[in-house]
Amino acid sequence: MEWETVIGLEIHVQLNTKSKIFSGSSTAYGAEPNSQASAVDLGLPGVLPVLNREVVRKAVKFGLAINAELAGQSVFARKNYFYPDLPKGYQISQYELPIVGRGAIDIDLPDGTRKTINITRAHLEEDAGKSIHDLYSDSTAVDLNRAGTPLVEIVSEPEMRSAAEAAAYMKTLHALVRYLDISDGNMQEGSFRCDANVSVRPAGSEQFGTRAELKNLNSFRFVEQAINYEVERQIALIESGGEVIQETRLYDPNKGETRSMRGKEQAHDYRYFPDPDLLPVDIDDSFIEEIRAELPELPAARRQRFIEQYELSDYDSGVLTASRELADYFETSVTTAGGHAKVCANWTMGELSAALNRDGVELSRSTVSARQLGELVARIQDQTISGKIAKTVFDALWNGEGEVDQVIEDRGLKQVTDTGAIEQLVDDVIAANPDQCEQYRNGNDKVLGYLVGQAMKQSQGKANPQQVNELLRQKLD
C-alpha cells in the first residue's frame, strides 16, 4: 500500500522585546537561574499582569508580512495544566480570538518548485520556565527566567507532505522573523522551536490518520530526522496490525528515534477560559497602518529585486536573501566594489561562506567585513591582483592582517601588467617548452592552458593571465 504523509507545524517564536509579555522582568538570555522571575511571572497572590505594547506591535508586524487577517479585538485566555516549570498552574495564551488569523507563506522546495502553505493562526502567549533534567542525578531543577517571555505561536494547516517540505517551511519562517526583526531566531537558545504534528494515510484518502505530536524540535536537521523516523514508525505499526495512538513524543537525536512522552491533550483538557485579569486587546486601523509603514523589504521581494537589479540567477538570489544579514552583507560589498554584483555574489557564497563554515563562525563575527570584500573585488576588477592572488589576500584578511591594499603592498602581490616583463616571461616559457609549442602549432589548442600555467607559475601568480594568453597566441600563431 502507498502512504501519504500529513504534517502540520506549530512554531514557537520568542519575540525580542527587552521585557516580558506581562511584567517588566528582563528577557536577556544567560542570566543566573531564577534571577529574572518577578512576582508577576511567578503568579504570586495580589499581582496583576500588564500587557507589553511592543509584543502586540511585533505580532501585528508578523501578521502583515504573511497577509493575514488581523483581529480588531483579541482576547487572552488561561490554558490550565500542571507542570513544575509553570508556577501559576496555567499559561496565559490566546484561544478563540487570536491576534493573527488566516494567512499564507510561499516556500521553495528542494526540487526547485514553490508551494503555498496556509497559516491557520498566530497567537500570543507567555513562555513557560525550563526544567533541567541532567543537572542533578536524583532530581529535576527548574529555571523560571524564561517564564513570561513573549511568544508568538504560528500554527500551519496540515498541508506539508514530506519532512523536506516541513524543513523548507520552517526555514522560510525563520528567515522571515529575522527580516522583520521580531526575533533573533536563535535555535540553540530556544528562541525558535517547533512542534510537528505527523500522521499518515493511504494515498488518495481524504480522511486524516491519527497524529502524533513531536515536541520541541530546535534544529532544521532534527525536524527532518524526527519526521522521517515517525513516518516510518507509524507505517510499520499500521502494516503490522497495530494502531497509532494520539500522543506527544520526544525526539532523541542520539538514537535517531522518537519515544512516547505523554498522551496528547485536546483543547478541552486545558479548560480554556478568558483571563479575568486582562482586558480584550483592541487594535485600530491607525495602529496597523503605522506598523505597515515600518515593514522592511521582505525576503521574496528582495530576492526578485536581486534578480532584476543585479542580474543574478534565481538560485544565487535565493541563497543571498536566505538571511537579512547575508543580503545586507552582499549589497554593501557591491556598493563598495562599485558594482560587479556577480563577482561579489561568487565571493560571498564561495570563499566567505567556506571560511565561516570551516571555523564555525556566524556572519556577524566575520573577520572579513562586507566593505573589505568589496574592496577585494574592486582590486580584482581593476587588475591590481588576479583572482588567484585574491584568495591569498582573503586568507590574510580573515587572519586579521590588515586592510586590502595594505596586505597587497606588504606581501608584494600586485599583478604584473608591464608588457615588457610579461613578454620576457612568455619568451622564457616558449624556449623551455618546445614540444608543447610544436603541439599547439599542429592544432592542439588545449596545450595553451599548460603554457599559460607555466608562465603563471614562474611569476608566482602575479602575471596578468589575460595578457599572458594573448602574447602566447601572438607568438605561436
Short description:
40% of the residues lie in helices and 18% in strands. It contains 16 helices and 15 strands. It comes from Methylohalomonas lacus.
Question: Top keywords for this entry?
Answer:
3 domains, elongated, 8-stranded mixed sheet, alpha+beta, 477 residues, 16 helices, Arc Repressor Mutant, subunit A, 3-stranded antiparallel sheet
Task: Write the SSE topology.
Blueprint (H helix, E strand, L loop, with lengths): L2 E12 L24 H4 L10 H13 L7 E2 L2 E4 L9 E4 L9 E6 L5 E13 L3 E3 L8 E3 L6 E7 L6 H17 L12 E11 L9 E6 L2 H20 L7 E6 L4 E7 L9 E2 L6 E2 L2 H8 L6 H12 L3 H7 L3 H14 L3 H19 L10 H12 L5 H12 L5 H8 L7 H14 L1 H8 L5 H12 L6 H12 L1
Helix pairs in contact: 2-5, 3-4, 6-7, 8-9, 8-10, 10-11, 13-15, 13-16, 14-15, 15-16
